[in-house]
């Protein structure tokens, strides 16, 4: 009995260490180009979490981890604050609705949904994005009052329903739809991503789909990863980290396929 208990403790410790490492890598990736959930959600599921709990746990880790990236971008004065207030409410509402929808679906189906949505999040996360400054940004009234709220509502829903790749989708949407420079898009997207995370967090928290105690070391690791990733930025970290991240996601994706499809 003692040996079995000792082995169980060892497995639990190894599992937590793996999730802490995954949280750091996910935080780094999220700060650089978005896509923390591409690492976190499969990692949580493969260590035994039910799919809905894995989605809720990802919101817990990502929401708190994003603060350190926002801090660095705030110091760098790259957040476009004059547009922030117009996107936050719809990002919150969209994510809460998305969370409620995914929570209403049977967990056996949720696992399959996650498997098929991961390539979509992966696609958006690995579309090339560069941290150049494209000049002064002057949004139009249409950008502020119509396009931005709609973007945040739709992307917020996706974040609550699934999540991985949300940061990347926001960066690309801000750049191509309202013509914000890419560096500012990356920085400003963190505010909207935080808002959508909070909306989804609320839905999963009310449903009891979070494990706070084991989440503490993961949150700390995510904060560290976000801080390092945002500090290094795309220019210094993108070329080195993305091949490693792609390999990791490919392994996790294949593992999920073996679990839920085959």
Automatic annotation (TrEMBL):
Transmembrane segments: 7-25, 31-49, 83-103, 109-128, 140-158, 164-182, 194-220, 240-261
Any one cellular-component term (Gene Ontology): plasma membrane
Residue ranges the record marks as coiled coil: none
Keywords, alphabetical: Cell membrane, Membrane, Transmembrane, Transmembrane helix, Transport
Subcellular location: Cell membrane
Keyword Chaperone: no
Topology in the lipid bilayer: Multi-pass membrane protein
Main subcellular localisation: membrane
Family matches, as PANTHER family: MEMBRANE TRANSPORTER PROTEIN YFCA-RELATED, TRANSMEMBRANE PROTEIN YFCA
Family the UniProt entry places it in: Belongs to the 4-toluene sulfonate uptake permease (TSUP) (TC 2.A.102) family.
Name under which the protein is recorded: Probable membrane transporter protein
Organism: Bathymodiolus thermophilus thioautotrophic gill symbiont
């Amino acid at each position: 009995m003692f040996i079995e208990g000792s082995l169980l403790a060892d497995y639990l410790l190894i599992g937590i260490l793996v999730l802490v490492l995954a949280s750091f890598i996910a935080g780094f990736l999220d700060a650089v180009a978005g896509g923390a959930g591409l690492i976190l959600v499969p990692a949580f599921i493969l260590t035994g979490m039910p799919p809905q709990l894995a989605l809720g746990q990802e919101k817990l880790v990502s929401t708190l981890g994003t603060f350190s990236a926002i801090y660095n971008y705030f110091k760098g004065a790259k957040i476009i604050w004059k547009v922030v207030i117009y996107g936050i409410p719809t990002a919150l509402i969209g994510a809460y609705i998305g969370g409620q929808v995914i929570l209403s679906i049977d967990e056996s189906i949720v696992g399959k949904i996650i498997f098929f949505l991961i390539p979509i999040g992966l696609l958006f996360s690995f579309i090339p994005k560069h941290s150049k400054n494209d000049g002064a940004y002057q949004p139009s009234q249409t950008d502020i009052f119509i396009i931005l709220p709609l973007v945040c509502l739709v992307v917020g829903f996706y974040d609550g329903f699934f999540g991985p790749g949300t940061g990347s989708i926001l960066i690309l949407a801000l750049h191509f739809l309202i013509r914000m420079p890419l560096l500012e898009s990356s920085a400003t997207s963190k505010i909207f991503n935080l808002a959508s995370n909070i909306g989804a967090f609320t839905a999963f928290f009310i449903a009891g789909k979070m494990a706070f105690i084991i989440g503490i070391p993961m949150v700390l690791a995510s904060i560290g990863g976000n801080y390092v990733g945002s500090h290094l930025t795309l220019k210094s970290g993108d070329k080195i980290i993305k091949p490693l991240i792609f390999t990791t996601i490919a392994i996790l994706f294949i593992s999920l396929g073996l679990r839920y499809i085959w």
